[in-house]
């Protein structure tokens, strides 16, 4: 870590707004953390700025630090931090009060880290004698925050005002990036299981399609490109479900709906939304013939189709009236014939067989 603090500078409003825009544009939480730490370090002098995720009960912590001290530093110091992390009074303060505002060591309601084992083994060896932090939204039991580390100079009212100015923007950006990241992860997971994700507005117009969705539907002679209107024809059943949804009732997934295209049949699930857009999941229906053509026996094909339908090994055994051990043996054979080594890949391969 650097041993000296940079000379102070006063950021202008433009620099602050540019930082907020840059942070909000992050693709995922790792990008958010890096952009936030780098940006704060650009706006105000400090030894370092860190993004921290802390589970006090488990004594575990994750941190992204700017400037990056390197893997050797993490190997040396993170064990001390995890062992004594509850010595940091800011950790206890935020967990006890639920406060999210900017606080610093030495504040009457916070207390000091001086003299603790964490101070002796972690902070003082790195020249850190003052710290200010803010809390971000987090699941129960997890503390997520941004910490600014300095030497003995502490934090002036102007420093705190700048951090407090940034705080609500960071909270908003964090939530937005988290939603975007979760949506992207969900889309990838669905795609791995053979589902194409399509967002449709209340008028039946395609707002957005997941990667590969347009190409997948086109193989069945169906058009779900962005901007396409779901008019009369194979996709009209989806539009009717959306039109029939009552926003005053809970939004639940529809029963599977067959969508018959010129070159085959798709299975559709519609998840309506009170405010839109509505989510439509599309997946090709694998046939027994296509699975047999891929080298599976009759029984293996039956197991594969049930696997693709989301059934567990126990459910497959019960439905086919075979023992769980036999079901697992058939699944192993299915994986081997399809050239895959786990359930998600098998489902994706089965769904790709037309």
* Approximate strand percentage: 15-25%
CATH superfamily of the largest domain: Transcription factor LuxR-like, autoinducer-binding domain
Q: Low-confidence parts, pLDDT < 50 over ≥5 residues? A: 1-8
**Element-level helix/strand string:** HHEEHHEHEEHEEHHEEEHHHHH
Q: For the report, how would you describe the main beta sheet?
A: 5 strands, antiparallel
What's the gist of this structure?
The chain has helices at 13-24, 29-43, 71-84, 89-97, 117-123, 157-192, 213-218, 236-244, 288-293, 298-308, 313-320, 324-338, 343-352; strands at residues 48-55, 60-66, 103-104, 130-136, 143-150, 196-200, 206-209, 257-261, 264-271, 278-284. With 354 residues, it is of the alpha+beta class.
Descriptive key words:
354 residues, five-stranded antiparallel sheet, 3 domains, Arc Repressor Mutant, subunit A, 13 helices, alpha+beta, Beta-Lactamase, 10 strands, 45% helix, disordered N terminus
């Amino acid at each position: 870590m650097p041993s000296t603090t940079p000379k102070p500078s006063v950021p202008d409003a433009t620099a602050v707004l540019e930082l907020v825009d840059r942070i909000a544009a992050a693709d995922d939480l790792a990008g958010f953390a890096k952009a936030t730490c780098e940006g704060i370090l650009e706006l105000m002098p400090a030894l370092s700025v860190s993004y921290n995720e802390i589970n006090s009960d488990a004594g575990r912590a994750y941190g992204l630090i700017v400037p990056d001290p390197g893997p050797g530093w993490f190997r040396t110091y993170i064990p001390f931090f995890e062992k004594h992390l509850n010595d940091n009074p800011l950790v206890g303060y935020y967990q006890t009060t639920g406060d999210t505002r900017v606080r610093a060591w030495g504040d009457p309601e916070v207390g000091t880290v001086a003299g603790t084992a964490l101070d002796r083994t972690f902070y003082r060896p790195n020249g850190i004698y003052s710290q200010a932090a803010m809390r971000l939204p987090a699941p129960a039991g997890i503390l997520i925050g941004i910490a600014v580390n300095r030497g003995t100079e502490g934090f002036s009212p102007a420093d705190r005002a700048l951090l407090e100015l940034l705080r609500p923007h960071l909270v908003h950006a964090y939530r937005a990036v988290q939603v975007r990241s979760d949506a992207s992860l969900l889309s990838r997971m669905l795609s791995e299981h053979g589902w194409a994700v399509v967002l449709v507005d209340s008028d039946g117009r395609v707002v957005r399609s997941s990667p590969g969705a347009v190409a997948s539907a086109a193989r069945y002679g169906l058009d779900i490109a962005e901007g396409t209107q779901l008019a009369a024809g194979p996709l009209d059943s989806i539009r009717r479900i959306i039109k029939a949804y009552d926003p005053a009732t809970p939004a639940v997934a529809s029963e599977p709906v067959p969508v018959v295209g010129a070159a085959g049949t798709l299975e559709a699930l519609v998840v309506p939304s009170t405010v839109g857009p509505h989510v439509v999941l599309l997946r090709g229906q694998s046939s027994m013939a296509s699975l047999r053509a891929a080298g599976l026996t009759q029984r293996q094909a039956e197991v594969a189709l049930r696997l693709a339908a989301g059934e567990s090994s126990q459910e497959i055994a019960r439905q086919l009236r075979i023992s769980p051990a036999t079901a697992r043996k058939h699944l192993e054979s299915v994986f081997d014939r399809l050239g895959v080594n786990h359930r998600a890949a098998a489902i994706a391969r089965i769904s790709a067989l037309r």
